[in-house]
Amino acid sequence: MPVAPTYPGVYVEEIPSGVHTIIGVSTSETAFVDFFAQGPMNAATRITSFADFERRFGGLDVRSEASYAIQQYFLNGGQVAWVVRVSTPGMKKATGALTHGTAPPKRSVLGIEAVTPGGWGNSLRARVDDDGLSTTDKATMFNLTVEQVADQGGRERVVARESYRRLSLKVPEANYAPTVVNRASALVRIEDRGLGERPSLEVRTEVDETGQARQREAPQVVRLAGGGDDDDNYDSNDNLIQRDGTIGKNAHGRLAQAILGTAPTLAFPHPGVRALDRIAPFIFSILCLPVVAKLNAETRARIVAAAQAFCRDRRAFYIVDPPFEDPSREARRGPKPADLADPNSPGFVELDGLRHENAALYVPALVVPDPLNENRPLVVGPSGTIAGIYARTDVERGVWKAPAGTAATLVGAGVEHTLTDLETGGLNPLGFNVLRTFPVFGNVCWGARTLDGADQRASEWKYVPVRRTALYIEESLYQGLKWAVFEPNDEPLWAQIRLNVGAFMHTLFRQGAFQGQTRREAYFVKCDRETTTQNDINAGIVYVVVGFAPLKPAEFVIIQIQQMAGQIQT
User: Fold this and answer.
1) Is 246 within 8 Å of 7 (Cβ atoms)?
2) How many CA atoms lie within 13 A of 112 on its CB side?
3) Can you state the angle between helices 50-57 and 65-75, rounded to 10 degrees?
4) Please, which of 29, 231, 378, 468 could form a disulfide with 370 given CB 3.0 to 4.6 Å?
């Protein structure tokens, strides 16, 4: 701040440099929204490995398409995922009660329920003991242990355990059980039933070696029950079964309702998807909704349209899974590539209506080993695999490099159909990216077009890397220029904006993100009297114009060979 001199001498004043460094945002953090066996409900959870996903959400589940997509995402190079577990219409929480008394009728003094709905809660058990407590403390205090168990080879294995010692049901003591447990537990919530008595131990009668009956105290153990995912109300294709046993007319399935909601709009009213708006200062850059592939065409079109609009508003990119011809796990089939190239086929008509610059589609479907079914082949959508390839390419080369080519190998997955060059040539001009199998190179991603990339559309956003580079620049500048809001709108501000945006763009230029040998050829930044007029200043607006020359992928490599005629030396 300016110095106010009051005495003769030397004063030191620090002058602001005007430098506000713009940091590039993440380009490959991927969001997955679906049903999962367990985990936080309607909240976006950041995970960094598949082991992390198994701990938080229960791992692979036959009812969850996204669980397989997340496994593929991390296998193929993904590093950060945002996982949203959505609620479905009939989900219930598992519950139980800890009691006081040694003989019936025992009094319920502490209610306990799973922290989120679902059948996973039936694997929880709570145990009360007084180990390590003094005789005086045993009258009012207790220890509580909550465990989650899993069946492994016919034996129970503890997969999660929480222990709370010296709890009390006296208010307002610091060790008041509901306050302590509900604040810390990731498994349960407990409720004081208001009787003022602590849960008691079990009194068991045992016969010793002399034949005499003796009583001893043992921990009280209760197993939670009643949790459910409402599976009984849906058929194998996830359609609602009516009370009379018939399939509901135009039923969209529980997961469609969970993701899209019940309102007939093209927006996402469901709190689960909206949870992605509450992850600041983080962002997600890629969206995957694998469950959409197995829904009916009407619902699928609604969700894809909503997802595209959702991503456009958030400067994110949506990887669309092609629809399954048969969604049942036993006979599942992906779309036939030949049908997608036929303008008269239903598959082409449906996908042709999904054109958008912030989305891309890859065919054919993939085949992965299913660990839940003796590693037998399972057909899945490619979105999780492709999102992993996006992340891997971004790290190795940058977001401006097309996530395709011989280096874009599919790890842990094969293609359902082996396509030829001619078949690829029928799909590529339509904006449908192809997954190919080549000798030596194996299974690779062999396309880099957006759904707006059909040749006839002549879109400036034809290529995935061009669009994702633009989104990266937009989001980075959006985040990095917030300091300019409410600053005096005149040349000093414009100069600072030019300095900081120019430094950011020059960094990208040096990294090889743009065409051109000089920065004048590669990018420009304008913010002055030409872009911001007096009327704009009066309206409180400052205009910053940023242009860049994007790198376009070498989609076609043409080798010209000419036979040289004999030359006469001179």
Assistant:
1) no
2) 30
3) 150
4) 378
Residues 73 and 101 in one domain: no
Cα-trace Rg, the chain: 30
pLDDT band at 251 (very low <50, low <70, confident <90, very high): very low
CA dist 257 and 87 (Å) reads 9
Alpha carbon distance 482, 486 (integer Å): 9
Q: Which of 71-85, 105-119, 165-179, 209-223 has the highest mean pLDDT?
A: 71-85
**Rounded Cα distance, 234 and 349, in Å:** 29
Same domain, 283 and 426: yes
Q: Is residue 270 part of a domain?
A: yes
Laid out side by side, the sheet with 188-192 consists of: 95-100, 107-114, 188-192
Q: H helices of 121-219, where? A: 177-184
Full-model pTM:
0.89
Give the C-alpha distances (Å, rounded to integers) separating 323 from 296, 362, 364, 432: 9, 11, 10, 13
Per-residue pLDDT of 371-416, as tens digits, reads: 999 999 999 999 999 999 999 999 999 999 999 999 999 999 999 9
Helices (H), 314-443: 337-340, 346-352, 383-396, 421-427
Other beta carbons less than 10 A from residue 541's beta carbon? 11
Q: Is residue 477 part of a domain?
A: no
Residue 58 φ/ψ region, left for φ over 0, alpha for ψ in the -120 to 50 degree band, beta for the rest: left
Lowest-confidence range among 200-204, 433-437, 542-546? 200-204
Please indicate, yes or no, whether residues 416 and 550 belong to a single structural domain of this protein.
Answer: no
Give residue 87's pLDDT.
77
Within 10 Å of residue 490's Cβ, how many Cβ atoms? 12
Each residue of 500-535: pLDDT tens digit?
Answer: 999 999 999 999 999 999 999 999 999 999 999 999
Instruction: Render the burial of 266-283: b for 16+ CB within 10 Å, e for the rest.
Output: bebebebbbbbeebeeeb
For tokens 């958008």, name the residue. 356
Q: Look at residue 75 and tell me whether its pLDDT is greater than 70.
A: yes
The pLDDT of residue 19: 86
| Contacts for 8 with CB less than 8 Å, ≥ 6 apart | none
- What is the tally of helices (H) and strands (E) in the chain? 14, 22
Supply the pLDDT for residue 397: 95
As given in the structure block, the two tokens for residue 469 are: 């580079």
